[in-house]
Amino acid sequence: MDRDTGIGGSEGRFPQTRRTIVGALQSDDAAERRRAFETLVALYWKPLYKYLRIKWRKSNEDAKDAVQGFFAMLLERDALASYDSDKAAFRTFLRLLFDRWLANEAKAATRIKRGGTVLEVDFESAEVEIRRQGDDSLEQDEYLHREWLRSLFGLAVDRLREELSSEGRELWFRIFESYDLDPPGGERPTYRRLAETHGIPETSVTNHLAAARRRFRQIALDLLRESTATDEELRTEARAIFGVAP
Amino acid sequence: MIWLSDETVERLRQTSDPPDFDGTRYRLGEEIARGGMGIVYAAEDRELGRQVAVKVLGTGALSDGAVARIIQEARILAGLEHPAIVPVHDAGLLLDGRAFYVMKLVRGARLERHVRELHSLAELLRLFLRICEAVAFANARGVIHRDLKPENVMIGEFGEVLVMDWGVAKVIGETALEPEGFAWRIARGDPTTVDGEVVGTPGYMAPEQMRGEAGSIDARTDVYSLGAMLSFLAGALNRREPIPRPLWAIIGKAMAAEKSERYGGAGELAADIARFLDGERVSAHRESILERGGRLVRKYRTPLAVIFAYLVMRVIVFLWFRQ
Asked: What is the reported pTM?
């Protein structure tokens, strides 16, 4: 069985030095910079877009332009240089930056379109999700947090599928998908039914599911690690999400 | 990117760190139930080759107090050997710090579902009496359940009744059970509640529980919850069979806002219900002459029917000879 032992290994310790999201985004290494930016975009574009559509009541075109513009600004300007990890978590800082940027752009409405197309993302998929989820009464902060978590987990599930597929462990993923993700008919299968469906013993279902869950958690923690600014922030986020005692 | 519903996100949060039972005698199976504090899994005891249930503290509740509380639950259950209280087989701590205990695997239905299969009020009350007996047994040993509700009662495949989920039980007269033994030494914290902390389920909680008065919790607190349970169950049955006034009076007395006006314990409540079942006068209800007559007629309907039949026969014979 895979032995996953919590964040930072069995002792709950983290490497003393690691590249923070801010450092990676300002790196001289173009490849590292691009990777960090891609992670940032993957995690945040949809939450920010939906946040604008639902909480700011922006039209889809305005929301698209705003999200494109914001990420273009992040690329162009040294906007993250002002980040101080002692003052706020990176996610909080990013949200404040976004709100401030929106307010400034609103004053000069014509500039909002200047961002051009820096993101190759599927805005229509976000629209589909908005229609599916409907409206809600969450506060702005809570809404953004919930959508960020949905993005984080969605991305982690996608990565899990890719990784297991490349290792020839598609069965692990199929069991994980059937049991833990939204079942197509709305009904969660039993271990016995899964065992019958896949022609394996029930104990294998247990083992595959446990292994897939651990991998999922590890991927989600890796994503968190890539998108936080400090180890302390990582611990706080991980504790809030998984309840892990570091 | 895949879209995940809110429920799925929550499930992934909760399940992505399954407890690791490697190195123990148990092989973890399917999740059976999930509560605020712990998750219950089916498991196989490889040493004895039997199916058991394992309750493990959730990773979201890894505080010292929560560890102490699940330990206390295991110790309380271990001390309550009663046919209607699920027996504990084993307990310990996993390498990741999660406490667990192993108990009998009960297959069956929770009471709130089982009630739909009951055919009569008498059947319901006989079942309820067994719940009262288990609670009275625990209360007599100084244990107050504090979260009695239909969801916390299991009806096994063979009709056995089991009062479950003793996670928030309070031990009267003890500030905290002192953990002993290797497994517990690393666990710290006080599982007892302090004034102001509210534990239980709205709708089944006694007023003193709602107010968070930990110091005034006693056997009568469980009596209130039993009354609320009986009210729910009787209500569920009411569509098929009317509930007599004395039974409503019993419920009313059990659920009295003032503790002093309730039954003194689950045993007293059970005794009144038994009296009701036997057609006797219940302590909770002052009956009118009409009600008393009706009750006596119901209670002695067989001898009365025989006497009535005899009298009718005598009248027929008398009239026959007069002709």
From this structure: 0.63
